[in-house]
Amino acid sequence: MAEKGIINTKQFVWMLFIIITPFAAMQIPGMLIMQAGRDAWLSVLSAWFLDVMLAIVYAYMGLRFPGENFVQYSITILGKYLGRVVGILFPLFFLLVCTLVLRSLSQVVDTVFLPLTPFNVILVTAFLVSALIGRKGIEVIARMTEILGPLYLLSIVTLSFLVLPSFHIARLKPQFDQGVAPFLVGTPLMLTSFGVCIIMAMYIPLCNRPENGFLGKLSAVSMGALVVCLVTALSVGIFGMEDAQYMTSPGLELAKMINFSNYIERVEMVWLLILVGSGILASSSMLWAFGQGLAQIVGLKSYQSLIYPGALISLVLSLISFPSGLQHTNFFHYTFPIMAAFVETGLELFLLMAALILHKRGTT
Amino acid sequence: MTALIMLAALAIGLVEGIPLGKQGQWKELAVMSILLGIAFLLVMGYYLGLPSPLVLMERLLEPVGKAIFK
After folding, report:
1. Is the pLDDT of residue A1 over 60?
2. How many structural domains comprise chain A?
3. How confident is the model at residue A98 (pLDDT cuts 50, 70, 90)?
4. pLDDT at A211
5. Helix A213-239 vs helix A9-25: angle between axes, to the nearest 10 degrees?
6. A300 in the Ramachandran plot: left (φ > 0), alpha (ψ -120 to 50) or beta?
7. Domain containing A215: what range?
8. Is position A194 within any domain?
9. Shortest Cα distance, chain B CAs vs residue A268, angstroms
10. Is A297 exposed, middle or buried (0-12, 13-18, 19+ CB in 10 A)?
């Protein structure tokens, strides 16, 4: 059967927040510091602002085409054939994000926590759990994120307070010492990671109050930006930008530093919980969106049967495309932002322009 | 790993395919089979030395990315 689940605004917010969290917990802060140096935290703020602007477009399209997600309104706007060609790019993009997130997650877990376990075992397990959750449908994902989201936010903020004694604000100064170029280059890198929240267009038709789509996204991306900003600024302020930029997961290194007289120690396990939990939930959302989107493109009655095959393709891609962690990091750094900018911004703006020019509106 | 992927594809085909066949959802069955076929072709292509779609994307877009980012 087609997705019949309904989510409320609170669940909508936490689902989007959980999608941003793995990006904060993995390599992105390090990459951002490499690009923008001390100004990395400013790049996060500007990316947050641009993402909110983009959210206005998505929320507007959600209201202009009530009950339709971007896959469906691509067909409404561009017609049966061209609409399907454009619409299928969204589910494929979600499958790509699932591939990259689970690969990153497994890489960090393998390198830092389970170095003796074969990498493929970690990767296959992560895919299996994500597919199981994704197949259960949006309500199951929503309920899980409703419980885990606040816990993750609280944990990250608490961890940030615990490392504050080692923070040196002087390491964040001077701002713009190499001009505004590093800051400007860092912004799109961060924006494309926040931009994965375009999945909101898949959630809005299933939301009990679709008119809250923009406010929901604003809240989620603000919390997400706060988390990334904290990790980025603290990493630079504690390790210095020279060291922080080469860290696999700067947040993890921050958590490792916490040690209060041998009483509170090994706090990195909390970070592991955040990393694994949010990564798997984000990937299950991506797999769900892939299945749902593809089923709508092809005109299927149910999407559930597409989740496991989708997860298998994603697993195969992550195995055969990146023989080493370095190649994966390079892909994430240089190729993914270009693809993401095209899908997240280019396609949606194209659809908006087409809808305005062709005077297309939803019917229900 | 190839054997494991084949086994997984077979298992998914049986677990998902049999109920779909019983319910007469032939279109769903066809799409699911195509997706499993794509997974199979990707693995075969890898062993034949063909680049994966992501590697092709990388070859195409990485120069652009490197021109923008450090």
Report:
1. no
2. 1
3. very high
4. 85
5. 20
6. beta
7. 9-357
8. yes
9. 30
10. buried
CB pairs under 8 A between A and B: 106
What is the ipTM metric for this complex? Answer: 0.97
Taking an 8 Å cut-off on Cβ atoms, the answer to whether B36 and A96 are in contact is: no
Confidence bin at A15 (pLDDT 50/70/90): very high
A7, β-bridge pairs: A207
In a domain, A2, yes or no: no
Would A1 be classed as within a structural domain?
A: no
Residue A247 corresponds to which tokens in the numbers above? 């860290």
* A4 is a domain residue: no
Separation CA B28–CA B20 (nearest Å): 7
CA-wise closest residue to A348 among A59, A34, A45: A59
Interchain CB contact of B37 with A (< 8 Å): no
Q: Which among A301, A334, A338 has CB closest to B25?
A: A301
Q: Which two tokens stand for residue A256?
A: 């490792």
Residue A154 sits in a domain whose CATH number is 1.20.1740.10
Asked if B16 lies within 8 A of A338 by C-beta distance, the reply is no
Q: How far apart are CA B29 and CA A276, in angstroms?
A: 32
Interchain pair A312, B39: CB under 8 A = yes
